[in-house]
Amino acid sequence: MKKTLLLAEVLFALAGIGCGGNPDDVGFNSNEPTDSLEASSDALTTQNCTQLAATSVIASGNDGNVPANTLDDRPDTRWSMLGKGAWIDYDLGAVRTLSGVAIAWHQGNVRASNFTLSVSSDGMSYTQVYTGKSSGTTTAAETYSFPARSARRLRIYVNGNTVNDWASIAEARVCGTSSTGSGGTGSGVVWRGDFETGDRSQWSKTQMVSSDRLQVLSSPTRQGSYAIKVTVKQGDNPISSSGNRNELVRMTNEKEGDEYYYRWNTMFASDFPSAKTWQLFTQWHHSGDNGSPPVEFYVNGETIYLRLQGSTVVWSTPLVRGQWLDFIFHVKWSASSSTGFVELYLNGQLVLPKKYSATLYSGMTNYLKVGLYRNSTIAPTGVVYHDGWVQGRSLADVQ
Known about the structure:
Blueprint: E1 7-10, E2 39-44, E3 51-52, E4 56-59, E5 79-82, E6 86-105, E7 113-120, E8 127-133, E9 142-161, E10 166-177, E11 189-193, E12 205-207, E13 214-217, E14 227-232, E15 244-254, E16 259-268, E17 278-286, E18 295-300, E19 303-308, E20 312-318, E21 325-332, E22 341-346, E23 349-356, E24 366-374, E25 382-392, H1 395-398
Antiparallel strand pairs: 1-2, 3-10, 4-6, 5-10, 6-9, 6-10, 7-8, 7-9, 11-25, 12-15, 13-14, 14-25, 15-24, 16-21, 16-25, 17-18, 17-24, 18-19, 19-20, 21-22, 22-23
């Protein structure tokens, strides 16, 4: 249902038009000035815009006026950042059909802002879809339209205005079609575990010795506002089993014949231990209690491996520390090696074409475990970050 965005015209005396001054002037205030006069009572709605609800918003920075202010339905608050190229980014939570954005510019009646719009389906690769300038005549929402396209995120880059180099937006709403696009998610998304709830509630349970071992943090992140930091110290053994671990568990319950795509982001800390033994960071565990999982991603020495059935390595790549690695994993779940298969993309590139193999143990189901599980002989503390988990029925679902 279309949500009404109430935005007000602000009345200014001519003397107020000099808003903020020149940043090169001596004594220039590094904070964007606030309107000192009251807003008029003539509230207007967005025009030519079916508003899409954003699940989160991030920005390249702020001066204390945070990006969430642009979603609070209050024209007297704003997001602000000084400097050309400052950006604010709205996540819709799923792929939608986008056709524009409605923006109410702070002090938009006394200066015109230069800006561009870009969209993305994955939060990494962006495509510019619009470039222009606000009218400079109103603080009400102005709608800027572009040809409809499927995307999950919309980013506004501000390249200064006719008075100074501030980026300042009072309110903004992405415009488009409320239903999902042809490449969208809809019922195709099975589950999200991207930590955008700000906690671990998207997951079924945890196996951790204490909450500081599985911390949901706002930095570093690969996408959205939150990621999880996983820490394992020698002796961490929350389930009195072999090895040391702190892991998240999601009861995905993959069964014979299921076919899914999984996407996630992993980053190994700059001091992640180099050990000539196993360190699992993602695994699909079987419903039985004993033995190696049928599908596991792990580090050994300076190499990352994907292994099936506890013995068959089907892919490997050098370990990289301090950089996000973006995985898309396509699996047909089956105990038959002629039916089951795996396919893997890393950082947007197909690195493992479809490989047929058994991906289940006969008569069992699988479930997902994410974190760090390693040989108990490793003494140094290990830290790994995870973000962006999503499970879907098609490649478009997870993109």
